[in-house]
UniProtKB/TrEMBL annotation:
Organism: Vibrio campbellii (strain ATCC BAA-1116)
Domain of life: Bacteria
Protein name as annotated: RNA-directed DNA polymerase
Lineage: Bacteria, Pseudomonadati, Pseudomonadota, Gammaproteobacteria, Vibrionales
SUPFAM superfamilies the UniProt entry points to: DNA/RNA polymerases
Entry annotated with the keyword tRNA-binding: no
Length: 281
């Protein structure tokens, strides 16, 4: 926790949040107002002390719906600016721990990795003769992450119980919609700096399982495709990985949207592939 609360780390987090801009949360304080408040009297020191002694309490996130390009609405949970600063401070420290552990086949929300790299890897697997794909669709992934399983996973690498308590308090902070706060028992709402890292930590277990089985795959956040050499293998992998996700990771697979088929029949990150691995928009 001392590393998270260091002046250097908190100031870097503040600058990062300010650069990313974004709207106010439930306290209606924008970035400038929050910074002004932190710099008044001893508010900055009070923040550090509350984090160190465990008395800091995150506020509920503000529920906001934004239209998806493909239709429907994506639900975001916007933390207050102060909570975004604290989340960013946590993320900066934990990223140093987990980046060294993450799979090379994971491309989303990671430094020096992008959708372009994921597509290039997928193209390479297809060119190597893997003409079938297992496309697993996780139903409302960010809303269904099991808190207890995530916290158990974090406790394997984080010894400081204050950090674990703070992360759990963010997971359970609740979400405000239409002036009412709904409590959350699961999920990591999209909208804060910490959520992408936590989502990768959860699905790193899937990555490790796929690697253990010797599969070639690409995962960008919750978009995961596994490339195999035959239709029979595709169906077999689809069934076994679906069982693993639901029984071991306690996630929900959308069976109607998931598929085991030729690579030419599916898109990945809004792109299509030719049977020779060429990428088409």
């Amino acid at each position: 926790m001392e590393q998270i609360c260091s002046s250097t780390n908190l100031n870097q987090a503040l600058r990062r949040v300010k650069k990313n801009k974004g709207c106010a949360g439930v306290d209606k304080l924008d970035i400038d107002a929050t910074i002004f408040k932190l710099r008044q009297a001893s508010n900055g020191q009070a923040l550090r002390q509350s984090l160190l002694d465990g008395s800091y309490r995150p506020q509920p996130v503000l529920g906001v719906g934004i239209p998806k390009p493909s239709g429907g609405v994506r639900q975001l949970g916007i933390p207050t600016v102060l909570d975004r600063i604290v989340q960013q401070a946590i993320t900066s420290v934990l990223s140093d721990i987990y980046e060294a552990k993450f799979s090379n086949s994971s491309y989303g929300f990671r430094p020096n990795r992008s959708a372009h790299h994921a597509l290039a890897a997928a193209s390479r697997y297809i060119r190597e003769g893997r003409g079938y794909v297992v496309d697993i669709d996780l139903a409302k992934y960010f809303d269904t992450v099991n808190h207890d399983r995530l916290m158990h996973r974090l406790s394997e690498d984080i010894a400081d119980k204050r950090v674990l308590k703070l992360i759990r308090s963010y997971l359970q902070a609740g979400i405000m919609r239409n002036g009412l706060v709904e409590q959350r028992q699961r999920g990591t709402p999209q909208g804060g700096p910490l959520s992408p890292l936590l989502s990768n930590i959860v699905l790193d277990e899937l990555d490790k399982e796929l690697e253990r089985r010797g599969h070639k795959f690409c995962r960008y956040a919750d978009d995961c495709q596994i490339y195999v050499g035959s239709e029979e293998a595709a169906y077999r992998v689809k069934e076994s990985i679906t069982e693993y996700l639901e029984q071991k990771l306690k996630l929900t697979v959308n069976r109607e949207k998931s598929a085991a088929t030729r690579v030419t029949e599916r898109t990945y990150l809004s792109h299509r592939f030719g049977i020779d691995g060429t990428i088409h928009i």
